[in-house]
Specification:
Elements lengths: L2 H18 L17 E16 L4 E7 L5 E10 L4 E11 L22 E12 L3 E8 L24 H4 L4 E2 L6 E2 L4 H4 L9 E7 L6 E8 L4 E11 L2 E11 L8 E11 L3 E9 L14 E14 L2 E13 L6 E14 L4 E14 L10 E11 L1
Antiparallel strand pairs: 1-2, 1-3, 1-19, 3-4, 4-5, 5-6, 6-9, 7-8, 9-10, 10-11, 11-12, 12-13, 13-14, 14-15, 15-16, 16-17, 17-18, 18-19
């Protein structure tokens, strides 16, 4: 397959979609419930194509989305009285194609299909207007997402994680004509772990006061987590700030997780964010044990080029130290261009990522970087 022709075709299709997107109101339908509670069904279908070049090989992959796989959810809610509401949520992950295409593993561009559904969320909640909300079941712990906030208006990719298609590929040394696999993947050395997602928890969220909110949780493995967030506006600037702390010593070798993010957007559409996270290892320091530390920055612009929806641009950079073993130094940078189609709840995102790696402890080897070009479509319903 001629990659230049493929990329030209993809870009042309995206432009045509942007110009010709329908503007009709989305269809709606009523659902008959077993009682007076309200039930809403929603979800998304996510697909992506990406071209990967590891310095020795190149291939085009057709796969599921990046961080957002195809999902479906059922949200039930009811009113007990004027102050108290309650509800429940079930969400499944429907992953029909593997996201981790790798020359070293599959040897080709076709990944094995997955036919099973996995449960993402299954919990019940009760909310009081004055006293806050209690959630009980499988869902996010109190600080999850607090290292990932941006105001770039781009969904489906995050500044502190990598594009999954490139993350599963082994890095190669460039010391021979054909190269050799290192056994190291970008996903193992470039990361921002964030906090605990989709686990068995009991969680309490305070009511929001002047933009501030606090959450605490306890999970089934004995870990506790606390998170704080602020959302507000100061003059022409929208702001989001979040921090979190997670106690992890009961779960393994990691002592705790500490991190956060801050994002700002000017009313002109210019925006930026900063992300940081540290996860100390409680084992004695050695040649292979170190304290992982990661940070990332983004800069973006929200534009209104087409009537179909916003066109958002974002550049990002991630620096990860000791994510795998001591002296690991991984870095990734990239560019996102996302076009929204508001009338149909859809988006197209064109992405580029570059991943690089060094480890002085094992000598100054020349290791090829990995380049990924992708086009992701998400249709929400």
């Amino acid at each position: 397959m001629n990659i230049k022709t493929t990329l030209k075709t993809s870009v042309a299709a995206a432009a045509l979609f942007a110009v010709a997107a329908p503007v009709a109101t989305p269809a709606s339908a009523d659902i008959a419930n077993g009682n007076k509670n309200k039930l809403v069904v929603s979800g998304q279908v996510a697909r992506a194509m990406y071209y990967l070049d590891d310095g020795q090989h190149e291939q085009l992959f057709n796969s599921t989305g990046n961080t957002p796989n195809t999902r479906i959810r059922w949200v039930a809610s009811g009113t007990l009285n004027e102050n108290v509401t309650a509800g429940a949520l079930i969400e499944f992950d429907v992953q029909t194609s593997n996201t981790g295409g790798s020359f070293a593993v599959s040897g080709n561009d076709v990944d094995a299909d997955k036919t099973n559904w996995s449960i993402r969320h299954q919990y019940v909640w009760v909310n009081h207007k004055k006293f806050g909300r209690v959630s009980f079941g499988q869902t996010d712990a109190a600080a999850n997402g607090n290292t990932e906030f941006t105001l770039a208006g781009i969904s489906g990719t995050t500044p502190n994680t990598i594009w999954q298609g490139g993350g599963a590929q082994f890095l190669e040394t460039g010391t021979t004509a054909t190269g050799s696999f290192t056994g190291i993947t970008p996903g193992g050395v470039i990361t921002m772990n964030d906090f605990t997602s989709r686990t068995d928890v009991i969680r309490y969220d305070t009511p929001t006061f002047m933009g501030f909110g606090l959450a605490v949780s306890l999970d089934g493995a004995g870990g506790g987590e606390i998170g704080a967030r602020y959302t507000g506006k100061i003059g022409a600037f929208n702001l989001i700030g979040a921090v979190g702390y997670s106690e992890l010593s009961a779960k393994g070798n990691t002592d705790y997780d500490l991190g956060g993010s801050i994002a700002v957007r000017h009313e002109s559409g210019i925006n930026a964010s900063f992300h940081i996270e540290s996860r100390p290892d409680e084992r004695p320091s050695s040649a292979t044990v170190a304290d992982p530390f990661m940070w990332a920055v983004t800069a973006g612009y929200q534009a209104k080029i087409f009537t179909a929806g916003g066109t958002n641009f974002r550049g990002m950079y991630n620096r990860s130290l000791h994510a795998g073993v001591r002296s690991d130094q991984g870095e990734g940078w990239g560019i996102d261009v996302a076009q929204s189609f508001d009338a149909i709840g859809a988006s197209l995102t064109l992405i580029y990522r570059n991943y690089d790696y060094e480890n002085n402890r094992i000598g100054h080897r020349t290791i090829d970087s990995i380049d990924v070009i992708g086009l992701q479509a998400i249709f929400n319903f």
